[in-house]
Amino acid sequence: MSLHTDGLSQFLDVLPSIVRDRLERAGGLDSLIEVVLDYGRPAEARYRDRVERYQDVVVSEHDIDYVSKSIGEFGSDNRAGIERTLHRISAIRNRHNKIIGLTCRVGRALEGTIDMIDDIVRSGQSILLLGRPGVGKTTKLREVARVLADEVAKRVVIVDTSNEIAGDGDVPHPGIGAARRMQVRIAAEQHNVMIEAVENHMPEVIVIDEIGTEAEAGASRTIAERGVQLVGTAHGQTLENLMLNPTLADLIGGIQAVTLSDAEAQRRGTQKTVLERKAPPTFDVVIELLDYDRLAVHHNVQKTVDMILRGVPPRPEIRVRTGAGEMEIVQSEQTADLNEPGFNKRFPALARSGGERQEKVSNGSPARTSPTINPPNPQSAIPNPKSEEGVVDESGNALIRIFPYGIARTRLERAIREKRAPAFVTNDINQADAIMAIRSTYQSRPKKLRDVVGRPVNTVVVKSNTFSQIATALDDIVRQASEGPGAESEAMEEVQSGIETVLQTGKPFELSPAPAPVRKVQHQMAEARRLASESVGEEPNRRLRLLPTRI
């Protein structure tokens, strides 16, 4: 683990001279977490392993003013920073809005802090980090953003509410690598900026610190349903804490009371009114940071929540960093078998089988084997996009990888389950065999979407996020896949080119003859760009004419 840069000298410069001298004489600055300055009380230095109170250094009004004037302006959340560093200063005010206390937190960018969860971070699953304050949640979040942006080469956008992840000032701290940062003007608007990040900048990964309100939890679900990997932190130390928090329970699927029939209650051996999960979890994996070198991993949040609601205590995977700096799994995750439907059961190729699994340590060498009881998110089993074999079901038939562009992911997955379609939802647009796009999102950015994909991909556009329209679009994708991609890919390219021509010239444009199902998709694509279209000619030469009329 190496220190990228912490700007500790700049942090010490903003402190009162007597406090700075005490800290430098005491040594151990590498483990300093924060300095607390409360008016009329002794200054306090909190380290990772101890707390030092300087009884002879009583904080004065002058000391508070000195620090306040040495840093940036405090925002609406009473937080400020030191430009081009990761340090954070938070203020406590009295009833007259005067600052009477300061918490000066040291911010660090450490490389190697996520070596214990590197495999999970690179899996493409959405990850939620939990833990007490000061255990390193934000530090790990910063390193996750850098690794995904620089090493995995994904488009990463950080929603930085208090400039704590990427530092104060307009130029982000180098600790986030190539990741982009969106600042939040007012903390209460964080959820709006989260949605704006997805709609305007087409990220593959959104990184967000301190999800704390119902609106932010709702925005997180919206982002996850659009197929974007979400990595964030939330208030709470354990998964059970999150379930008891009505504001944030939606992150793990939400909890609701359900009244069972007499027969079902008797079959389960429970009372008639029970608690059940309301929806699929927003996050696939929850990681509890127990301390700096020890964490617990819930690989399948959906199953773990269901277990807890049925009175079965969770037994997460426990990972620790050994004295040699390597990762070791000291407890394997165990989950009970629950009778619940899931599309993975229909497609075993997408699920991790039971048996033995080889764990790896940070240097890449095998550590030891442990029994695998809990299957991971199905996305972790998706092959490399360059693979020609693709993913197959138990009959050996190829499955269609569908990327939802603005589509409600849960409704698409429900349609796949109910129709028993040979398809599954992918989070990676580069792996997609087909794209299902909502018209309102697609119509303003079709060229940008094509540029990201970099190849012809069958795109079906729906007017709204209703289940019936998503199900109909799914039928179209499956049918088109069964008919073969050759001629249709050319037809899709032609209609896209024709739309651009009509928009530029203002003149009608006729496409090549095409079968009725292909013409239907061409009509949808024209409508998505708000262009009128009509079918002309007789079969087999019936074709689409694009009109410059706006609809």
Poorly predicted ranges = 1-5, 340-389
Main sheet characteristics: 9 strands, mixed
Mean pLDDT: 82
- Estimate what percentage of residues fall within beta strands: 25-35%
- Give me the side-by-side strand order of the main sheet: 11-10-12-13-9-16-17-18-19
Find the structural class using helix and strand composition.
alpha/beta
Bulk shape: globular
The tally of beta strands, per DSSP, is 28
Distance between the termini: 58 Å
Work out the helicity level.
25-40%
DSSP helix count? 17
What is the rounded Rg?
27 Å
Can you characterise this structure?
With 551 residues, this protein is of the alpha/beta class. Helix content is 30%, strand content 27%. The chain has 17 helices and 28 strands. A nine-stranded mixed β-sheet has the order 11-10-12-13-9-16-17-18-19, with helices on both faces. Strands 4-3-2-7-6-5 form a six-stranded antiparallel β-sheet, covered by helices on one side. The longest helix has 20 residues, at 486-505. The protein is globular, with a radius of gyration of 27 Å. The relative contact order is 0.07.
